[in-house]
Amino acid sequence: MKKATLFITALLSMAVTAGAKNVAIETPGNTLVVDVTNGQRPMFVYYGAKLSASDMANLKPAAGFSRNEIYLPYGPAPAAEAAFACRHSDGNMTTELLATGYDVTSDGNSTVTTIHTKDPQYALTVDIHYKAYNDVDMIETWTDITNGEKGTVTLTDFYSATLPIRRGDVWMSSLYGSWANEGQVDEEPLTAGEKVIKNTDGTRNSHTSHAEVMFSLNGKAQENSGQVIGAALCYGGNYELKVVTDDSEYHRFIAGINADNSFYHLKKGETFTTPPLALTFSDEGLSGASRNFHKWGREYRLAHGNDLRRILLNSWEGVYFNINEENMNQMMGDIAAMGGELFVMDDGWFGGKYQRNTDNAALGDWVVDKRKLPNGIENLINDAKSHGIKFGIWVEPEATNTASELYEKHPEWVIKAPRREISCGRGGTQLVLDMSNPKVQDYAFSIIDNLLSKYPEIAYIKWDANMPIQSAGSQYLSMDDQSYLYIDYHRGLEKTLKRIRKKYPDVTIQLCASGGGRANWGLLPYFDEFWVSDNTDALQRIYMQWGTSYFFPAMAMACHISATPNHTVFRTTSLKFRIDVAMAGRLGMEIQPKNMTDEEKALCKKAIAEYKEIRPVVQLGNIYRLVSPFDHKGLASMMYVSDSKDKAVWYWWKTANFYNQHLPRVRMAGLDPTRMYKVRELDRIDLNPLDCEGKVYTGKFLMETGLDVPYTNEVEWGKKTDWSSRVLYLEAQ
Ligand code: DGJ
């Protein structure tokens, strides 16, 4: 993440009070045009590829489409789904927002255009911001809603933004799923009516659906061609994305906080800021839009987005809660011997009066369980040091169990509606702590602060969150403000995370939430990566990692090699297949190495060494998805290409195995057609090298024709499996 975005150095500011038509908001390759005329409703004009000045001068808001206000309020404006609605201090339910001017500020990385609007009858103002980046095609848009009225204004709808999309043959790609099946791709044409994607979990927001979508403007989505608009709501809480297709020429995409049961009393003088919606346009298909999200994410939103990630072993699937000094040391030794760089001790290390032997006790009692680890964390850190690796640790700061000393001491800290019983989750005893309460925020901060101040050698924290909000109410918020819970929970969480990052900017923190429950750009500024899913089955991971890669870069996606039969789906896959799938993200291991054979360990050691070679291309390169597993062609294929196109890594995974199968040859993408690339197979297990091994091909050939690879891995008879995959490293000569 670039520091300059946090600490604005040179501020160039321009205030424009006179009305102006066609205000252009521009990135290197995108233009968004808004009509801002003082005393009039600000109207959407254009969003897409960069416009020339002469073409822009010819544009005006589409005649007769008065619903295309950039932030349509409920009331005097045309009857349509509104982006904003409130009850004014005198009870009036309608709002009119007319432009009063705009200004432009710049910080070296981006330019923020703010369009000021005001209700002509009320002292309610809405500032609509557009932040356009100078080096990546991304525009973030959000609003500041300020109550200048004499009394309280109640906000009932407060989305972040509206984007009209011209009708035609527009398709929407979105992600859906569930625990252990996150990131599934759904594609559908936009038809008449309303399509709503929303989340109501309260704490996590990406298991069942995602706050990001892509719109393909020229028919069914293509990976590497066609015009695509991508949108990501940068928010960790309940969201709502909707596309309204009524009788006008435009679909209207509206995105923001899900206001269900969350009306907000805006006190006199108070400002409510909505979370940013990040927008990108690409004419290079879905993969092009993904590359924009990845670049923007790495530069501006992900913690340490320019630093390579360590290869780690996480203890969870290896030993679960059965942590002790001996097995921790043994696992550290094993991962170090395989070339790994970090060991993470997962759940089960803590507890005093209550022991954490399963998931029903001790959350909140963050003291080392001396029965399991008599020599404490310092001893583990020393062990890690002696193996030459770093040490990391698991916590779940937002939760407790009824069986915990914390709950006994602070029953008033848990989420619970007034006059209702508590409602428990995981293990039948888990409860969510009320992050809207400043005392709980201080407590959550203190968990991390205690660990990191006492053990500064801790290099990695895995921050988990395993429960939704149940019995939705707060013991901290007043009866009048109960509807703040969902929003104030996330404000409290963010405040805590900001405090942690201020004091501990360097520590690596993983965002985990029962697997991939928190893959969102709202929380990632405080985290280095997220756990894609609790399901580590390589076959299902191909699908999950595919969908997740639409919006998130490989360096942020934790992908671990685990045991077979897989602990979630009980599928048995080959180790080679598991390695090749995990190598497409931030590689790690989630296994008890003690149970592996020497041959398996040797294969992993080789894979780790080879991953180190390709790590910069995978983690900092550009994604080109080639054949989607969701197209059910029997295979999936994708690649990463370095910025200078001198190196690339190509993945080929077979998703189904039949005799006499006919698979398509995969054409590569993103290479320099004029350069020569030498091919080397990684993670090789075949007895004989591939035909292409060591040969040199033009980028043109690889992209127009592609390489044929055998459909099976040719190994000794007794070692054959029904899985096959290939990873090729291409280096320009
Ligand atoms: C859920 C996470 O997704 C797992 O990786 C593991 O950390 C468990 N929680 C521990 O309880």
UniProtKB/TrEMBL annotation:
Substrate binds at W179, D346, D347, R426, K462, W463, D464, A465, N466, C512, D534. Keywords: Glycosidase, Hydrolase, Signal. GO terms for biological process: carbohydrate catabolic process. One of its GO terms (molecular function) is alpha-galactosidase activity. The active site is at D464, D534. It is an enzyme of class 3 (hydrolase). It catalyses: Hydrolysis of terminal, non-reducing alpha-D-galactose residues in alpha-D-galactosides, including galactose oligosaccharides, galactomannans and galactolipids. Residues 1-20 form the signal peptide. Residues 636-730 form the Glycosyl hydrolase family 36 C-terminal domain. It holds the Pfam family Melibiase. Its EC number is 3.2.1.22. Residues 41-266 form the Glycosyl hydrolase family 36 N-terminal domain. CDD domains: GH36 (cd14791). Gene3D superfamilies: Aldolase class I (3.20.20.70), alpha-galactosidase from lactobacil brevis (2.70.98.60), Golgi alpha-mannosidase II (2.60.40.1180). InterPro entries: Aldolase_TIM, Alpga-gal_N_sf, Alpha-glycosidase_related, GH, Glyco_hydro_36, Glyco_hydro_36_C, Glyco_hydro_36_N, Glyco_hydro_b. Belongs to the glycosyl hydrolase. This is Alpha-galactosidase. It comes from Prevotella lacticifex.
